[in-house]
Description:
By secondary structure, this protein is α/β, with parallel strands linked by helices. The protein contains 19 helices and 26 strands. Helix 11 (297-317) packs across helix 14 (350-358). Mean pLDDT is 93; it is low at 1-5.
Amino acid sequence: MSKKKHHAKPWDFLDEYRGKEFTGTWPTVVEMFDITVKRYPDNESFRAFTPKKEVYTYAEAYEHIQTIASYLVVEGVTKGTKVALTGKNSPQWAMSYLGILYAGGTVVPLDASLSDEDMIKLMAFAGVKIFIADSERLKGFDEKDTLGLTHRLSLEPSEEFPMIMEQKGDRRRKAYKATGEETAAILFTSGTTGTPKGVMLSHENLVSDCYLAQGNMWIYPTDVFYAILPLHHSYTMMAVFIEAISVGASIVFGKKLVISQVLKEMREGKVTMFLAVPMLFNKMIAALMNGVKEKGAVLYGVIRFLMGVSGVLKKVFKVNIGKKMFGFLLKKLSLEHNRICISGGGPLPASTFKLFNQLGIDFVQGYGLTETSPITHLNPVEAYIETSVGKNLPQVEVRIVDPDSDGNGLIHIKGPMVMQGYYKNPEATDEVLKDGWLNTGDVGYQDANGYLYLTGRAKNLIVTEGGKNVFPEEIEDHFQLYDEIDTICVLGYIIDKQKKSEGIRALIYPSEKYSDEMKKTHGEQSAAEIEKRLNQIVGEVNKSLQPYKKITRVTVVNEPLEMTSTKKVKRHVVAQKYKD
């Protein structure tokens, strides 16, 4: 790759292709991929750790995508045709996604963990006619399907179902070419009760967000992204999949969200861009620091002191000595090739953010919603703030509505990445979208430099007896680095029906490792000992909290709390299950 002088903005190179490959401000997703294939045909695009080690260059991927697209065109896919896509992360998933767009259709990515019934409900609502999935999932639709699907296609070789990549079409048949304003994807948000909320994202939403995010962080054709979180989710779809293909970078597709597997694949794939959720980063740093503690108090003290020095040099003086100094520790986390770690999808403890940076990793976090494609804020690597979820991207406007005495109010956002609306749900759209401004439902404040600070979700608000507002997320943050705890969910419980005041309750699911250790040590008394220790932890945390934020009821649960595919607790489901 020839070395070129950096442009003022990462997307300035598009000027060379405007008027030739596309018109207007931004290309469509299809035009963007065309441009990347022209720029970097021989770059590795997709890699999977299957027995035969699948690897595709951009030119090879393009050929497969054209095969998929031409087949879909022959089978009737055109403007407005909805094609559902679900399955394990894989090159086939990525190429099918692009194939649908090249055919002129709209992608409906679905969570592979949904039941067949819920999937049928969402596909019926979206009017899906073609279903692409792993072969095992397709089997469940032989008898249950009432959708009148015209085609069921497999992402993998299958005796029962045709594999999408092997279906030939007539390439002379011209596909419908979508414009930037047309819907590229419909993403269903968590939960399937009531009228489904299908977020409509246009080509312009996706592509503008992709490039504008690079205004806060440069990425390169030499980068290797790791796709371990589900691709149907807006965070991975944008921050890994679409970002990578916009610059000709490579994507390594992970198999399972199991730390040992993740570390193996990251090392083997020489991953430079690692994007994950707070839970995974918390577990990684906790395991690493516990390993150091086991070497003895003196060594642990020395390393923590040196990490503190490294952190100050990195943050204040922009000198990064951590990567060389702590290379032996970074190898244990398979981060020796890493350039940047990004946390998203939920609140991250500032301590985790700080520890990774002290080790020499350029570690930042970002913010956004499915309704904003999803990125609106991202910490610049060279100017990060540990307590902030990031600085607003170029062209993103923020206003804080009805701030309280501390300056916390509802966060409203405006920008080219804000969704078109909810599919077939104008009432829900009107509730959150007005004059281009999106009510995020999140509460927080923004400083004068555009850095955003979150307090919590408005709908999760707990109103205490003294009339104080408490957000569960800010309490839960204090528990994220305790090894004894797998998951915690903080909820309100009614203590005065007339005044509608609430106390604060914690539901805690202990970690399996800790539970197993206690069973070996205490046998039948283990449950009581576990409960005793978890109450001690709550007591420790309560000491650091303001009086009105203290937890007053603790429930230790004996089964995992229900989670979304991005490892966030389904708060409403858990609240219903464990209600008083």
